[in-house]
Design a protein that fits this description.
With about 130 residues, this protein is α+β, with helices and mostly antiparallel strands. The protein has 2 domains: about 80 residues, Arc Repressor Mutant, subunit A, CATH 1.10.10; about 45 residues, 2-Layer Sandwich (Dna Ligase, domain 1). Helix content is about 40%, strand content about 15%. The protein has 4 helices and 5 strands, in the order H-H-H-E-E-E-E-H-E. The protein has a 3-stranded mixed β-sheet, with no helix packed on it. A two-stranded antiparallel sheet has the order 1-2. Strand 3 and strand 4 form a beta hairpin. Helix 1 crosses helix 2, helix 1 packs across helix 3 and helix 2 crosses helix 3. It is globular. The termini are far apart. Bound molecules: zinc ion. Zinc ion binds next to loops.
Length: about 130
């Protein structure tokens, strides 16, 4: 009995490990469908429900972040460093921006609104294609 439970436990943690690895393997901010497609190559009998459940657990454990895009699509982000996003309006590609921006923006925000913000995120939109000369 104990062995059987241990086996089930191991299977669950292996699934979670593989899903975490997939999210960390790309900077494309994948959807659950993308993760499911790739997880199936490693664990053929995994279900989409299992993928969702593990993604939720990984978000709860703060090992990955969940992003809800403007179009309502949910994506997952393995980059836990503080960063902003540039969203290409042509391709939908999301690019991580890690450069510090507007250092005193929090101070300015507090002064203008009286609200005590401690962090911020900015989403930039535009075309990621190089501007033509
Ligand atoms: Zn990101």
């Amino acid at each position: 009995m104990k062995d059987a439970l241990e086996k089930i436990g191991q299977r669950y943690s292996r699934q979670r490990e593989e899903i975490l690895k997939l999210v960390l393997s790309t900077d494309s901010h994948p959807t659950a469908d993308w993760i499911y497609e790739h997880a199936r190559e490693i664990i053929p009998n995994i279900s989409l429900g299992t993928v969702y459940r593990n993604l939720n657990l990984l978000v709860d454990e703060r090992k990955i972040n969940r992003l809800v895009m403007d179009d309502g699509v949910v994506r997952y982000d393995g980059n836990l460093r503080e960063h902003h996003h540039f969203i290409c309006t042509k391709t939908g590609k999301i690019i991580d921006i890690e450069q510090p921006l507007a250092e005193n923006i929090l101070e300015e925000f507090r002064k203008k609104t009286g609200l005590n913000a401690s962090s911020y995120k900015i989403e930039f939109y535009g075309s990621s294609e190089q501007p033509t000369q």
